[in-house]
Structure formats: C-alpha cells, structure tokens
Amino acid sequence: MKTLCPICNGFTALASLCPNCSLQLQDTGRLADYYGDYSPYREIDDAKKDNGYPDLSLRQCMHVTWCSLCQMEQIVAVDEWASY
Ligand SMILES: [Zn+2]
Ligand SMILES: [Zn+2]
After folding, report:
1. What's the CA gap between 19 and 56, in Å, rounded?
2. What is d(CA 49, CA 27) in angstroms, rounded to the nearest whole number?
3. For the chain, which terminus, N or C, has the lower number of CB atoms within 10 Å?
4. So which domain of life are we looking at (predicted)?
5. Is residue 2 within 8 Å of residue 82, measured between CB atoms?
6. In degrees, to the nearest 5, what angle opens at C-alpha 35 toward C-alphas 67 and 46?
7. Which ligand does the CA of 61 lie closest to?
C-alpha cells in the first residue's frame, strides 16, 4: 500500500498547535528536506530510515514546524493517507 502525506500534497493544512502556547504552528517543510537536495519519493523513504524517527513503519511524514511566539522549532508527525 502506498501512502502520501496530505500536507506535502496540498490536501490539507497543518493543524498542530504549539504544546507551549497553543498557537497554530507554521509548517516549514518536511524533515527529509533538511537532508540534502530534493530527491524522488523512493529516496525519501530511504532517507527516513536514517533520521532517527520511526516514521517509515508508522507511515507518518515528519514535518518541521515553527512557533512564531515561542521562537521554537517543533517536529510534528503527520499521519499519511492511503492512496491506491
Ligand atoms: Zn508531509
Ligand atoms: Zn509556542
């Protein structure tokens, strides 16, 4: 089964709140994008294995978000949707 991230694919906006101040977090991109140049989906899966998060088996897309109030980065796990 293939899965895709609804946020990376523009289906929905990130709706996570900052755990400190409950402000809406701003999505600044995929965690995988912080590991070198843009790469095809296949290689994103490979990159996921090395980033220290168990997101490949859980089918989650790790997003780096930013709270503008706390001036703090938060890593948010986004549940991916099944696609057939
Ligand atoms: Zn994503
Ligand atoms: Zn905050």
Report:
1. 24
2. 22
3. C
4. Bacteria
5. yes
6. 120
7. 1
**Dist. CA 26 → ligand 2 center (Å):** 10
Q: Tell me which residue of 67, 77, 83 sits closest to 30, measured CA to CA.
A: 77
**3-state secondary structure (DSSP) of residue 29:** strand
Ligand nearest to the CA of 27: 1
What integer pLDDT is reported at residue 2 of this predicted model? 86
Task: Give 67 Cα–ligand 2 centroid separation in angstroms.
Answer: 5
Give me 47's structure tokens.
């990159």
Domain boundaries, the chain: 2-83
How big is the chain, counted in residues? 84
Distance between CA atoms of 17 and 56, rounded to whole angstroms? Answer: 23
Instruction: Name the one residue in this structure whose structure tokens are 């989650």.
Output: 60
Kindly identify the ligand whose nearest atom is closest to the C-alpha of 60.
Answer: 1
